[in-house]
Structure formats: C-alpha cells, structure tokens
C-alpha cells in the first residue's frame, strides 16, 4: 500500500513526534476559549495540555502569553488555530443541520473535541480516525473530566499510512449515506501517496450530497520559510521543529483531483476568513502561513 517508512514514526502518542502537534493545537484552542473576543469555545482543550508531560508549562490562557498577540506562536499562530476551529465548526454544523448529513468523519482527529462540544442533530455519528496512542490519551483525559459526547462517537484507531479504507465501514460507517469529512492540520505530515490514497478513499466512500473540508499547503518549497517568525518561535519556545515533522515531498493537487472526479471545490486563504470575522492572522513578510489553503468540496447529489 502506501509508503510506510516515514519521518514521523518513532514516537507514538502525544509524547513527541507528530502527536505533539495535537497538543500544540489544543493549547491554541484553550487560549482562544479564554479570549474576550473568542471565535471558538473548547472547554476540554486545556485539560489535554495540563495532562501531558510534553506540554508542561505551555500557556492555556491569553494572560499567560508573554507579549500577547505579538507572540508569533501563542499570539498569531494560536489566533490562526482559533479562526480555523471556528470556520470548520461552522462548516461541519452547516452540513449536519442544513445539509442533513448524519455521518461526520474527522481524519487525523487528534484532540479535536467536536463530538463533545458542538450541538449535533439527533442521529449524528462522529467517526474519529487517528493513531491508537493519541486516541488512548484523549480518552484518558476526557474520562477524567467525565466528558459526555453530544453525538454517537466512534474512535477508529488507524495509521493513515496503512491500508485503512476498510476500517470505516467496519466501524459502522455507511458509504451509501451522505457524510461530511474534515482533514484539518494533517495532510502536510503525510507522504504524498498517503494523501492521494486518502482523497481517493474519501471519493470512494462518499455518496452524492457529501462534503469535505481540508487544509493544504501550496508552497513548492516549505523550507523557504524556515526562518519565519512562526517556525522560529515554535522551535525556540516549545522545541518543536514543524518543518522536521512535515513531509517535504512535492504535494499532490488534491483539490484538482476531486474536481476531476466531479466534486465542486472552493479554495480559500485563511486571510479571507480573518477579514470575514474581523480577527485572525493577516499576511506578513516571510509568512509561514502564506501557502495555507482551506479547501471546501461538495459531491453533487445524484453522483
Ligand atoms: C496537528 S494535529 C491536528 C489534530 C486535529 N485535526 C486538530 O486540528 O486539532 C495532527 C494529527 O494528525 C495525526 N496524524 C499524523 N500522521 C498520522 C498518521 N499517519 N495516521 C493517523 N494520524 C496521523 C496526529 O496523530 C495528530 O493527532
């Protein structure tokens, strides 16, 4: 199947490697939750950060951030994650409430607590795919705060570099019924073959009326931004070298691939939504966020 030798193997769970990035996003969501002008609320996020040794000492509130919004990591980058959370919350809830979709698939779910914090319609099922160790940590923390999901929740422990397509139907997912999929903060960690397999699998497992949102990075050369304020601050403040975790191979054109298969796609920059919501990051020189795109795709009904 897809290539399995990969730079993010080695450390499993959230102790290090790519799993620790789930904690980084959780810390950003915790900070966002406590902002006076918060765009998204995640009361579970700080519990993950406080429980994991790898995130010891990280801030979970805006008042704990030295330099506030001027801090490239816990200011600007955290604002990015807050905005992303809100935009993708709205996307998923729109598909469920307006589009009538009842199956939600979070791919590379990490410490995403949407199954516990969003108002899902009756009959909704949320499938969460991530590696076993990450999901085990998540359950341990959520059980510790007696969290109760607001939809039926089905964890699907899988490594997305393996042949995982059969796991979802095996977990109760119905490919004949419409579904909404989210691939947030994941693709740039995967080898290109695993990304292509993922997109083809989404196409194969979706009925007409389904939707997908994913985050991509368009740069031909990710290393061009190695000395950007964002990557530098992430290395210096918490010791995470994101570029070392990314798969630096040329990325496939996943939006184009979906369009070839009849999906309609809309490609946005995060800055489009900063302008819409009145907060979030804006472009800056040598910007590690310059190539980030949020892609929204719909599979026409009847296809
Ligand atoms: C940056 S986190 C994003 C988590 C979540 N989507 C969010 O936005 O909060 C990346 C997640 O992708 C998961 N991931 C990375 N490579 C993976 C793989 N090969 N198989 C399954 N999950 C993977 C990690 O374990 C981690 O939870």
TrEMBL record:
InterPro entries: Ppm1/Ppm2/Tcmp, SAM-dependent_MTases_sf, SAM_mthyl_Trfase_ML2640-like. Keywords: Methyltransferase, S-adenosyl-L-methionine, Transferase. GO terms for molecular function: methyltransferase activity. One of its GO terms (biological process) is methylation. Its EC number is 2.1.1.-. It comes from the Bacteria. The keyword Transferase applies. Pfam families: LCM. Exhibits S-adenosyl-L-methionine-dependent methyltransferase activity. PANTHER family: S-ADENOSYL-L-METHIONINE-DEPENDENT METHYLTRANSFERASE YKTD-RELATED, S-ADENOSYL-L-METHIONINE-DEPENDENT METHYLTRANSFERASES SUPERFAMILY PROTEIN. Belongs to the UPF0677 family. NCBIfam families: mthyl_TIGR00027. This is S-adenosyl-L-methionine-dependent methyltransferase. The lineage of its organism: Bacteria, Bacillati, Actinomycetota, Actinomycetes, Kitasatosporales.
């Amino acid at each position: 199947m897809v290539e399995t030798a990969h730079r993010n193997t080695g450390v499993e769970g959230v102790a290090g490697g790519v799993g620790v990035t789930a904690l980084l996003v959780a810390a950003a969501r915790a900070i966002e939750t406590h902002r006076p002008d918060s765009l998204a609320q995640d009361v579970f996020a700080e519990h993950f950060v406080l429980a994991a040794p790898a995130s010891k000492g990280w801030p979970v509130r805006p008042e704990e951030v030295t330099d506030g919004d001027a801090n490239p990591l816990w200011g600007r980058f955290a604002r990015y994650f807050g905005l992303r959370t809100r935009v993708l919350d709205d996307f998923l809830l729109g598909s469920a409430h307006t589009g009538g979709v009842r199956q939600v698939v979070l791919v590379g779910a990490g410490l995403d607590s949407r199954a516990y914090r969003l108002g899902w319609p009756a009959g909704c099922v949320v499938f969460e795919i991530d590696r076993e160790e990450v999901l085990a940590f998540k359950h341990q923390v959520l059980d510790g705060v007696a969290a109760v999901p607001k939809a039926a929740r089905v964890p699907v422990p899988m490594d997305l570099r393996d042949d995982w397509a059969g796991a979802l139907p095996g977990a109760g997912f119905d490919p004949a019924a419409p579904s909404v999929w989210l691939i947030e903060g994941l693709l740039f960690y995967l080898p290109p073959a695993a990304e292509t397999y993922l997109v083809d699998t989404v196409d194969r497992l979706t009925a007409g009326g389904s939707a997908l949102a994913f985050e991509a990075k368009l740069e031909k050369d990710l290393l061009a931004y190695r000395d950007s304020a964002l990557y530098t601050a992430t290395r210096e403040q918490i010791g995470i070298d994101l570029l070392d975790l990314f798969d630096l191979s040329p990325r496939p054109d996943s939006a184009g691939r979906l369009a070839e298969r009849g999906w309609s796609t809309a490609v946005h920059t995060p800055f489009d939504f900063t302008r819409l919501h009145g907060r979030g990051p804006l472009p800056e020189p040598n910007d590690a966020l310059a190539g980030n795109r949020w892609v929204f795709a719909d599979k026409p009904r009847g296809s």
